[in-house]
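Input chain follows. Return structure tokens only.
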Amino acid sequence: MGDAVKVFLLTLSALFPIVDPLAGSPIFLAMTGEYSKETRRALAWRVALNSLLLMVGSYFVGAHVLNFFGVSLPVVQVGGGLVVVSMGWGMLLEKNETYETTRKDVQCSDALRSAFYPLTLPLTVGPGSISVAVTLGANSTRRYGFHVAIIIAALIAMSVVAISVLLCYGLADQIARVLGKTGMMVIVRLSSFLLVCIGVQIMWNGISALLLSLHA
């Protein structure tokens, strides 16, 4: 039970900062501002569902695809940890205006067809989120193997992230008014620092496994 709680907290705290629905909600609102409230809420449902499917697929299948090509799990942990650290560090040092401009580069033209691209990929779950999910899945497989409680904990964590996407996007207009630019900047900075720490921990898990195999 304790390991399942750890996996839940690790998965949630690693994916939430990189998916970052709070920071994405103003961009979602700007890209869908011409649509009605009902259409935006329908889009929020679709984006949340698509995001969940992408995260689950990356988490459970990504590591097996890498294994097929002969990449060991400790190496995936080290490489993925480096990616997580670099992304968190980049977000931590990035100017708020630059961060918003990067996400605004993606344009949205059709309400129904844009639910997956660009609203889900790359606005919500981009290459960074996918690489984090693959790394977390490899880390979990390496430490716990196939364990029902661990799998359920990871699924619940990813579902919580998807629900947060649904709430933040569905209530994007209210959130933008309440938090303002300063509140959004504080959330991004705190989440970025946490992401750096998580990346270091995942990378250290892989390095430890490689050192043990070398010693053996």
